[in-house]
Amino acid sequence: MRRAFTLIELLIVVAIIAILAAIAIPNFLEAQTRSKVSRAMADMRTLATALECYAVDQNGDYPFDLDSRGWPWYITDVLSTPITYVTNAAALHDPFRMHLNQNDASWRFRYVNYRANYGSKPWPPCWCPGPYYTRWVASTPDSTIDQCIEQWGLWKLSSAGPDRTANSSFFLADLVYDPTNGTISGGDVIRSQKTGQRK
């Protein structure tokens, strides 16, 4: 006569499986987050190289911080048209914002050219094609922009980070993703001219 499992044995097996699942699932979610952070960092490194190559050709001037629709503070198509500094700047999507409408500029990495946002100072010759050659000037005091340039350099790129929320104060804020907080970090993954990669 075969001996069947007792209820206690089955409960022990179920408890062990539950404990293993409780350990494995958070690690799986963390691995997904780390993967997206790595992708965002790699794509922003590519964009940073394209920005610097653009500036070399434009005598030190960086492109406008407007996308092709005229949205402020998003990476622009000028990096891929008419000269290809990067194959397709618009195709480099922020992996933490891809749940949004892909026809929306908010899929893109955010970008700010601090020198192009000086209010009272002379507007530098930052080039942007066609009808988008528009002076979009922030209502931020020049002294504040000076502080941003001191901290970040002339430009900054940003990914929304694991909280998937693009910080509304991106232009000024120093809310940087902290990997020790994992999936609950409220910061952005940042790359700037002065600091390089920050995460």
Number of domains: 1
Order of helices and strands: HEHEEE
Reading side by side through the largest sheet, how are the strands ordered?
A: 1-2-3-4
Basic shape: elongated
Q: What fraction of the residues are assigned to beta strands by DSSP?
A: 5-15%
Your description of this structure?
The protein is elongated, with a radius of gyration of 22 Å. It has one domain (7-198). The protein is built from 2 helices and 4 strands. The chain has 199 residues and is of the alpha+beta class. The model is unreliable at 120-138 (pLDDT under 50). 31% of the residues lie in helices and 8% in strands.
Defining key terms:
4-stranded antiparallel beta sheet
Summarize the structure.
With 199 residues, this protein is an alpha+beta fold.
Can you lay out the helices and strands and say which pair or pack?
Elements lengths: L6 H51 L52 E4 L28 H11 L2 E5 L29 E4 L3 E3 L1
Antiparallel strand pairs: 1-2, 2-3, 3-4
